TrEMBL record:
The chain crosses the membrane at residues 135-156, 201-222, 242-263, 299-317, 329-355. It comes from Mucilaginibacter gossypiicola. This is Mechanosensitive ion channel. Pfam families: MS_channel_2nd, MS_channel_3rd. It is a multi-pass membrane protein. The keyword Membrane applies. One of its GO terms (molecular function) is mechanosensitive monoatomic ion channel activity. Residues 1-20 form the signal peptide. Residues 342-407 form the Mechanosensitive ion channel MscS domain. It comes from the Bacteria. One of its GO terms (cellular component) is plasma membrane.
Amino acid sequence: MPKIYSVLILFLFAAFTLQAQKLPAKNGEPVIINRDTLFKFYAPQGLFDPKERAGIVTKRIEALMSRIDFNPDSLTLKNDTSISIITYNGQMIMGVNNTDASYSELNRPQLAASYLSVLKNKLGNVFESNSPKQLITNVLEAVAVIILLIVLIWIVNKGFRWIKLKIIQGWENRVKKLAEKGAPIAYASRLLPFISGLVNIARLFIILLLVYLALPVLFYIFPSSQSIATQLIGFVVDPLKSILLAIVHFIPNLLTITVIYLVTRYIVKLVKFIATEIANGAITLKGFYPEWAIPTYNIVRVLMYAFMFVVIFPYLPGSQSKVFQGVTVFIGVLFSLGSSSAISNMVSGIVLTYMRPFKIGDRIKVGEIMGDVIEKNLLVTRVRTIKNEDVTVPNASILSGATVNYTSSSKTLGLILNTSVTIGYDAPWETIHNLLISAAEATDGILANPKPFVLQTALNDFNVSYQINAYTDQPGKMAVIYSRLYQNIQDKFNEAGMEIMSPHFTAIRDGSHIQIPENYVADGYKKPGYKIEREE
């Protein structure tokens, strides 16, 4: 039996020794008072592990702080051969053993003395902060901060009221001057409420900023809420710090982007200079027309800047983030789905540029639309009709149909204007030719050389179709020239005493008066009677 007791005692001693030699917590177990870490335990003591030990010491310190008669100077340290004990008026607060000292650079008495110094300083500060005198001081400081905040808000309101008054007075004076000069003032009057709204928004922003800056000061006055003040300041300081760090880190990329942009810009300027010289005729390239120069420059400029954006894209801040990439892909898909017709018109505009079917100022006809080209770009062509109607035609519609250009050859070959009349078979064709040619030659805007000519285009049942063709170099006055030509044809035929019966000329005229104005009827003209034949 004595042997069994001896083995049992040895087993309990070994278990106690192993418990005492446990490895410390990786980061230590802190003793936290009022959100402030006083120190950490890394080693166990007796039957308590570091976590349990830290909890017991924390409860003892909190109980100590709740005493009204607490005096930090009453904390004492007693060093024995194996342990150092910190007490308060004979009550044990905590102990420090040799194992604790083995995890620091101090020996046990020195480590215990440092713990005692921490307790006196920290608990003394807490006691002073919770004293009635300090509490009254803190409240008065908070009231002073609130009063200062109210005064600042009053000054801001007063200042912005003065600014708004000056703006209104200056605006009214300006409106009066504009009205005296006859300028419309309705638009200026509508802008005043908008400007006043901007001033109010600025005032509200400054007031909110003052309130936000005052809150950390108020929270910092009271020790128990100082952590909240730190968080509030962090909400402003941390983003600003992040922004400043991002700007500093972005400087190398910014320099790279700047170099790429400057190189691209000066290349575009060089292309513009060459294109301008070609358009002005200073530089000539075989097979390259001057009117191609500016459109080609615009295409090259777009391609150069698009290439520049592709090159600098990886250097942009946030370009590697999934959100940024997702947004760019989404925008690209929307652009692709919603711009199919626009891209079709752009491609058609490029093709039309190099096809050269017309240029600005030409008189053209596209479908049922006829007029002068006043604008031509990559998407649309604008045509102004003779009635001053501005018609916008998509380039894709022009490319898919036929376009008539009345101006392109009018200065060299001459534009042929033509119209037809139908005359009966009883009139000699030589006479009709002469009358039509003389009418054309008498028309303003018709060229004398090449000479007008007549074509007989049809032998109809009741008449012959004669077509007068005349040259002009003024396609922009086509409607006026046609009108004058029609007038002259009427006059020439009336002077010759010949009728123009369109579309049919009736051969039998029994009892009918000649179909020309009375002032052109020959003297002594008699209306023919009815011809009646009797069969015997």
